[in-house]
Design brief:
By secondary structure, the protein is an alpha/beta fold. Helices cover 38% and strands 15% of the residues. α2 links the parallel β2 and β3. The C terminus is likely disordered.
Length: 97
């Protein structure tokens, strides 16, 4: 039976680690997208379109997401503890929730 995933955003501080996590998920057969400043604008927009449509359930983002993403029906927001400390995490949490 295939695993049913909720719509989920994972917020990561470092885009290299975000890409690593995305690769790890891919190796395990879990489809996900990344969203960070190292991507071209058109790639970021495509990732958001795919995530909003529900075709991909997991979005791994960096602080690019802290600018505010208007996405309905997100069931989970997972925040990675960053070296920036609790202030930036609280800010991301308040904007997401």
């Amino acid at each position: 039976m295939p695993m049913v995933l909720p719509q989920c955003v994972c917020v990561w501080y470092d885009y290299f680690r975000a890409d690593d996590l995305s690769s790890d998920f891919g190796l395990r057969g879990i489809e996900c997208l990344t969203l960070h400043g190292g991507l071209e604008q058109c790639d970021r927009e495509q990732a958001l379109r795919d995530f909003r449509s529900g075709s991909v359930k997991i979005l791994i983002a960096t602080d690019v997401a802290s600018r505010g993403l208007d996405i309905a029906d997100i069931e989970w927001v997972l925040l990675h503890q960053s070296s920036r400390g609790p202030v930036s995490i609280r800010k991301a949490w308040l904007k997401s929730g």
